[in-house]
Design a protein that fits this description.
By secondary structure, the chain is of the alpha/beta class. It has one domain: 3-Layer(aba) Sandwich (Glycerol-3-phosphate (1)-acyltransferase). It is 32% helix and 15% strand. It has eight helices and seven strands; from the N terminus they run ααββαβαβαβαββαα. Strands 1-7-6-2-5-3-4 form a seven-stranded mixed beta sheet, with helices on both faces. Helix 6 packs across helix 7. The chain is globular, with a radius of gyration of 17 Å. The relative contact order is 0.19.
């Protein structure tokens, strides 16, 4: 009931974003499903959830600190979303996701582990772990574009969400979870190039994020 209510409330967002959905036929209506989208904007989970809703209700692995926001925690629980502590090797979150998949649910996980901020990111191994631990899971890739324009008022965004089958969502011989995650992310990024978020569209985002990306070697040091 609450999921249907949330979809109804968010219908104006679909209109404003001029959401265009492609490839929904690749989304099975039943059975365990792993959805693998790119992540350039905070709007991505909403748009993916609204795009896939005619076929499935999706449970995202979402950052755990969202559950610290009054009111939002209750909504996320009612929507049956899955908290994960990023950057901490949260094995319990992956265990909950595996359980959800084995129960036949649709689970979405961002292989980048967070916003790209317009910089190429290294894939996190989580999506590869889930695929390896659930051999019968269907893997559907999801390319999201246009969501970074939501903040560029008064210009209306033109959001496109494309669902695509992958060549193979299961590990190839000798392929570890990190390599599988990297391969899946590469397939998605071939259709949805990295795009900076924020009204200014600055690669690297705010200074604190840019410094972190520089430390990780994902961006050259400032001034170069």
């Amino acid at each position: 009931m609450f999921y249907d209510f949330a979809v109804l409330v968010l219908r104006p967002v679909v209109w404003w974003g001029r959401l265009h959905v492609v490839g929904l036929e690749h989304v099975p209506e039943t059975g365990p499903l792993l959805v693998v989208p790119n992540h350039d904007s905070q709007w991505d989970p909403l748009m993916v959830g609204l795009a896939i809703e005619p076929r499935r209700r999706v449970r995202f692995l979402a950052r755990a600190n969202l559950w610290h926001v009054p009111g939002l925690a209750q909504a996320l629980n009612l929507l049956r979303q899955l908290p994960v502590t990023r950057g901490a090797g949260d094995g319990s979150a992956l265990d909950r996701a595996v359980e959800a998949l084995r129960d036949g649910d649709a689970v979405a996980i961002f292989p980048e582990g967070g916003l790209s901020w317009g910089a190429p990111a290294r894939a996190r191994s989580g999506v590869g772990v889930l695929a390896a631990r659930c051999p019968g899971v269907r893997v559907v890739l999801c390319a999201v574009t246009g969501t970074t324009d939501f903040v560029r008022w008064p210009r209306r965004p033109r959001v496109r969400v494309e669902f695509m089958p992958t060549v193979t969502g299961q590990p190839r011989p000798g392929e570890d979870p990190a390599a599988l995650a990297s391969r899946l992310m590469g397939e998605v990024r071939a259709r949805a190039p990295v795009t900076p978020a924020g009204r200014g569209g600055v690669v690297g985002g705010p200074p604190r994020v840019r410094r972190k990306l520089e430390r990780q070697g994902l961006l050259p040091p400032s001034g170069e």
